[in-house]
Amino acid sequence: MLLDMSDHSLPVYKALSSPARLKIIRLLATKPYSIKELSKKLGISQTITLRHVNQLRAAGLLKFTKEGKSKISHLSVDDIKIQFPSQIQSSSLSSHQVDIPVGLYTDFKVEPTCGLADLNGFIGKVDEPKYFMAPERRNARIIWFAKGYVEYEVGNFLEPGEQVQMLTLSAEMGSEIPMSNEDWPSDITFTLDGKKLGTWTSPGDFADTRGKFTPLWTPAKFNQYGTQVTLIVSHDGTWIAGQKISSTTIDNLTPLPSRMKLRIGIARDAQNQGGCTIFGKGFGNYDQEMRLTLYCS
């Protein structure tokens, strides 16, 4: 895993900042363990152990498998490298940042289970795609769908003479299943102007605890929070959490059009058809909209 000094690496640094989570990593380096087994080794409750393990998983450091009714934890990385700022990532680069409200999509094709909600309640009726056309969708702070995609048009605010060196997209996302299931993987694919950037596998749809910013009106088993994902497109390829997910480079995308089309969805041939949830400002654990940033020289 490759880390750097940008905010997208913070979940990993935070996951490594706890003595209990470091001990979990040391234990898993010897063999896989169930939550019950880890709880006994650590001398803490299974509930607290699960919270530690979920944070490690959200940071991309471990994964789960099932053996009968037991959830088994495995390390998913064998080394971590930290890249300090270089010329391309230094303050000499200017940047253009655009926040993308989740309800301001310009095209969509979704199938149930699906829906939208704002800070006060559901928008229209859930599981009826026609409400994705409701004018109130502009106020949506969370959207979810089992199949299909949503597409956004994003403005290109580069100044004349500026050359794009890197593009990042940050968003809190998760899978989608009726109620919730923390072990429900989904392959979520990102494209920009018809060019595939890559696919990220969401580990599940989480409702084990209420999201930090999720409104109190939401049902307890409603999607409560997701995983903060930062996709980076550089001259070396496309990356998420320090792992290269495709060979698409920033050079494959330039010159960028004046209106970029960003599509997020589940490909028809995806191995894990687990749906998609996108959290905006006011829902989940990160109080922000989707954010696209262009770094240029």
UniProtKB/TrEMBL annotation:
GO molecular-function terms, A-Z: DNA binding; DNA-binding transcription factor activity
Classification via InterPro entries: ArsR-like_HTH (IPR011991), HTH_ArsR_DNA-bd_dom (IPR001845), Metal_resp_trans_reg (IPR051011), WH-like_DNA-bd_sf (IPR036388), WH_DNA-bd_sf (IPR036390)
The protein's name: Transcriptional regulator, ArsR family
Species: Lentilactobacillus farraginis DSM 18382 = JCM 14108
Lineage, highest ranks first: Bacteria, Bacillati, Bacillota, Bacilli, Lactobacillales
Sequence ranges assigned to domain HTH arsR-type in this UniProt record: 1-95
Pfam family, one: HTH_5
Keywords: DNA-binding, Transcription, Transcription regulation
CDD domains: HTH_ARSR (cd00090)
